[in-house]
Amino acid sequence: MAEGLLRIENLKVYYYTRDGVARAVDNVGFSMRKGETVGVVGESGSGKSTLGLAILKLVPPPGRIVDGKMFFQTIDLTDLDEKEMQKIRGKEISMIFQDPTTSLSPLMKIGDHLIETIIAHERVTRREAEEKALSLLEDVGILPERFNDYPHQFSGGMRQRVGIALALALNPDLVIADEPTSSLDVIVQCQILDLMMKLKKLYDMGMILVTHDIGLVPEISDKIALMYAGQIVEFADINSFFEEPLHPYAEALLDSVPNIQLSDQKLRYITGNPPDLVNPPSGCRFNPRCPHAVKECREKEPPIIHPEPGRVVKCFRYEERSDED
Amino acid sequence: MARLSFPRLTASRLRRLSPKRGVEYLFAFTGLVMIAVFLFMALFAPAIAPYDPNKTRVGELYESPSLRFVMGTDRLGRDIVSRVIHGTRTVLLVTFSSMALSSLCGVFLGLISGYAGGRFDTVLSLFMDSLYAFPGLILAIALAVMLGQGIMPVTTSLTVVYIPIYFRMIRGEVLSLKENLFIEAARAIGAKDRTIMFKYVFPNVIPSIPIVLSLNAADAVLTLAALSFLGLGLPADIPDWGFDLRMGYGDLTAKIWWPGTFPGLMIVLLTLGFSLFGEGLSETLSPRLARR
Amino acid sequence: MMLVLLSIVFLVMRVTGDPVSAILGGHAPLEQIERIKERLGLNRPLYVQYFDYLSGLFRLDLGRSMIWGQRPVLEEILEHFPATLELSIFTFAFSVLLGVFTGIFSARRHNKPPDQLIRLFGIVTYAVFIPWLGLILQLVFGVYLGWLPISGRADPRMAPQMVTGLYVLDSILTGNVPSLIDSIEHLILPTITLGIYLSGIYTRLTRTHMVEVLQKDFIRAARARGLPERMVIYKHALKNAFIPILTMMGLQFALLLVGAVLTETTFSWPGMGYFLYERISYRDFTTIQGTIVFLAVLIVLVSLVVDMIYVYIDPRIRY
What residues of chain A lie within 8 A of the CB of B8, using their CB? Predict the structure, then answer.
């Protein structure tokens, strides 16, 4: 726990909608250490974005954190009120958003965005804040002349750089990046990823990278948390995962990545439909689509198993292995 | 597994049954009830009112509200309840007539102008836009001054003031519908312009009218009351809320509050009725309108 | 469009009826009517009158009063202008502040009971007949509680020296404290009456746009940076929601004037509205026409100014 950065236990975040209660995050737990990068991967609706928002307690209504605990370093986030959370947001834990166009205020110059954030947390003069802001812009590769420009005068990639600068402004220990490259075109994606990796090393930050694109993960992460229907079905360090994925969903995912070297290959995909978060399948949520499903899978929720230290999988197949732990 | 808070579940189930039953519906319903009450009062005034509204009683001036005169008597000893009830007839008559006339004219002109286009449309729109830009009451005052007193002139003034609203609304709808393919199709099968206008365009334009009607009615009541208040409305022998309110002012310092307060209250309530109905209706129906 | 507006006024005032009969009450002998018509030039062909009217306007000549010894209408209007201006300024400030703050309050509690109540209140304020509200306020605060005066701008003994014609300002400029207090006392009830009426639309508008803006991503991003909630609401959300509110302010000017007519009549506040009312009761045709023209022009000018401010405020339009 001494070098622990974040530990989440039994987290439940539900959305109380008109059509029922959507269990976006249903009993999720994992931990990470300082400087580590965890890639949270899942399809749309798997709960990955909600997880990110929940850590900062920014889940929008009708969503609510229903149960569970989140420990950031030695602080219990779940106990903090709004005012206390405000001190943490932006300074200790910050967030990079998916769409840089909509996450910047159209009426404010980008320089002012940075200055505002700095002044909100530190006791510095405006002059000092401005200097810091300029050096931040340099770090992310934006020319200082553009300090007084408005967001709509930048391209998508540049705007995301501003977003990154904002997230890094106060040297947080943890950055949550919510699909940071999804709204950018492929070439720019690369640039942004490179930038993030460079800065991460430079500032020694922990990062949670939320994405649906499993291909992004090996580049930048140390660990991977695979989410399905609001639960983490597998958690492992990156190499072990790609060498030997344990959970059937993980297997199927990696299988379905098209391989240019294999000739004559039909596109492999996962059968079935994405799960309904209001009425998830009984037992293991993946069971309707799992090629290895047995009767037990439809009846009971699979246990959380540690097949090896630091690895987690939620599947009946590995029950024997847990005895070895 | 998860413990869900019970009340939430039931509320969401309720909401699923009747999609938009929120406060909006309550507003509209209340409004409708209020309008109905006034309508009732207007229709059956002679039967409901306890006394003759114009009967003066020299010996009983400024009686405070009592069992005999529920709202008291005014400076001429007339029973206020009866005046108020009879006043309803005038107000509703003028309001409904002017609403009907202005909507008819406005819609008709809007239809033609929008569909015809060209210079006719440009000129008419310019005219209507300017009329619309004129603050309603001021225009009404200008017209009323010239046309003189009486029910007909007042109704005319009000009608003119509201025509542009319908005109603009309908014309706008017509213009956007004109681009629609089904108009092209109709023309292709040889339908005459007139037919197209009335059979195709008009029905699509109708849904938005009731809401505007209701809200305009609210405005009309206020404008009418304002005209009477300023002395421009109806001749003195017709019980009139606005006029009574004006007269009630002089009695204030003597702490005689009833001759002014009650007629004024009626104005507010009737306006409120129309407003609630219009607003409630518009909010309840918005999802459907927004989809178009 | 201004031209069309002015023409409409002309049309209304000349064509819809016989102004002279209207003044004399329709019972006057024919020769008298003819004589007055001749004097006023009303028996000339219509197009000549129209031309005269427009050229007169160009020279800022609105004609002369038919009653009060032939004083120029414009002069009389301008005499009454400061009173209306003063009332308008205070009312405008009051209604915007009241409306915007209740709108924000409402938006933050979106769909919860306080929100519904405020929405209802918004509809009610619009339905309240100004003279009636004025009457109630006068009764309660003036007659029964005796706290505030119920008519006029100032106690005749305490009117400040005329510098700008705005009593509050003049009192401050001349250092006349009792007069300042007196003027403010007289301002309170009319301002509240008209202000409540006008605030309804701001409440509505603010609420709608705030609700919309508060759901936007950049608000969430601002919160994620740990900015204090007050800053998020005012500096980010309100600023972005403000543009339509600003537009409305411009449009509301017309409503303000209309409301002023009623309010001034209710409180015997000697402004343009009261002036108009007075002349209506005397059927002073030229003055009425002149006043209406003046008001119309004023409204058009204000909307032009609002358009210009609009362009300045939104950087997206500028660049």
Answer: 16, 21
